[in-house]
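Contributing new records

If you add data, match the layout below exactly. Sequence lines come first and carry their own label; structure lines follow with theirs. Keep one chain per record. Anything else will be rejected by the validation script.
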Amino acid sequence: MVPVRIAIDARKLHDYGIGTYVRNLVREFSHQDSPEHYVLICQPGDEEFVRALGPRFEPLVDRSANYSVREQFSVPLDLRRARVQLFHAPHYVVSPLTPGPIVVTIHDCIHLRFPQYLPNRAASVYARTFMTHGAGRARRVITVSQASKDDIQHYLHTPADKIDVIHNGLDVRFLGPPDEAAVARVRGRFLLDSPFVLYAGNIKPHKNVDRLIEAFALMRKTGHDDVKLLIIGDELSKYPGLRRLVHRHHLRQHVRFLGFVPDDTLAALYRLARLFVFPTLYEGFGFPPLEAMASGTAVITSNVSSLPEVVGDAAVLIDPLDSAAIAAAMSRVLSDDAERAELVRRGHARVQAFSWARAADATRAVYRQVIGG
């Protein structure tokens, strides 16, 4: 019996969000005892990663840039040459020329909900056009939370029975026991002698980092003047207003921007933090609060979009538009050792609900449904 050939667009393999999704899915597929053969469309240089997954995985190099005109032609040509029975697009961009049945993952509708954060009107039109086309063209649409499913129904008018909610998993590096030597090295490298509040994520406007800084300034007025704020996230240079905000509140000695850090360093910083605060305005899923919980850190996060669904009762939920409420929650949790310990206990229990193995099983079930249908 000839195995089913399934293609997955893995050209965003090294991105944080979609790359995390693709890397973990295909790794789990490689651990499964199943007959499918996977063709991973990848960037030059990623062939070894694909081959290392095992004999059921085949790299297919495509040099087209993401969001380019060229990919509209090259990816469909790749699929025809590879003779696949199904194509999984883990992002919303699907060429009208794409052959055969398609499964599309739409992680969130942030470009439709906050078009003002895109660089120009052309980018907004591009996002709306391709998200609408991708959802319409797909046999099944996978998304990562019920909140995102609701948004896909609302903005793209996709029928509810066409959308499968499959929660993301949690990377294993956040689940194991801490490497105390590595944690100590990170503490020494960054001179972390004081307790600190941590934020990790990107620095885009919807992440609401400006209100976090304002809340931190308010919190310091109620005590906790020994606590620092560490902000991890790249592309800070695009948002110079954040540094100006730090200066305006006289926080230069108390707020540190660390930029991008490797995953192993991030895992150590989660473990060292007294508190993790993630006051985002919108998330399709939201990895950082779960990563912090798995690392044994108490979490404060937003009461909007997917966050309540993801964190359950294991975090303090705040209105992300209310800096005073964020400050009050930070002050309370930092002051109350018993509440902080209870949040840590609940967090460890909560993260057990999220598994890449379960996500991979559910995704393969969607593949079988489409191919069988």
